[in-house]
Amino acid sequence: MASASLQFFGFILALFGVFGDIAATLLPNWKVNADVGSNIITAITQMQGLWMDCTWYSTGMFSCTLKYSILSLPVYIQAARTTMVLSCILSAFGICITTVGMKCTKLGGDTDSKNHACFAGGVCFILAGIFGLVPTSWYTREIISNFLDQTIPESSKHEPGGAVYTGFISAGFLLIAGVIFCSSCFKRQQGAWIYPPKQHHFPSTEQESNSGYNLKDYV
Asked: Span of the secretion signal (predicted)?
């Protein structure tokens, strides 16, 4: 019962991780530049994401521009696009597989099949967490290195946006969920290896037949 509750908790964490992963992939605020100008129509906030660049104006207008060219983008943005999409796909597969393998569901067949499905879903969550953690770390490193570079003007420096923090938290949720599912599947199997089932030794039929004799038979 405790293992089923732990799996359900891991499944909730995985759901939050999947939704956060998708949101971080689509949000345009991976890095933010706050630049207050003297003119009222000057852009005050510029945001750059994986797929588009957006700008907030002081008049309340909001405009976005899609990044159509892939080869013209920096390497870390191209890598972030690929790994975040893979993270979303793997986490979605993990949700489908663990739904079958969870002990609180009636899908998946016998116990061994459900354990294998649960372990496969946990591996998908762990891989999705790794694929989500690598681009956010690399992207943050590029932002910090450019921010500390003295040769770059102040107007061209950026700070990490909300999408980066969302990606970090989602990757952590997916990693924790993957560890929970993998450990819950191996716990029972490891117990079976350490403590094998006891073999009951029954007395032989000859002893039973001898014990059935009574002294009255010899009188």
From this structure: 1-20
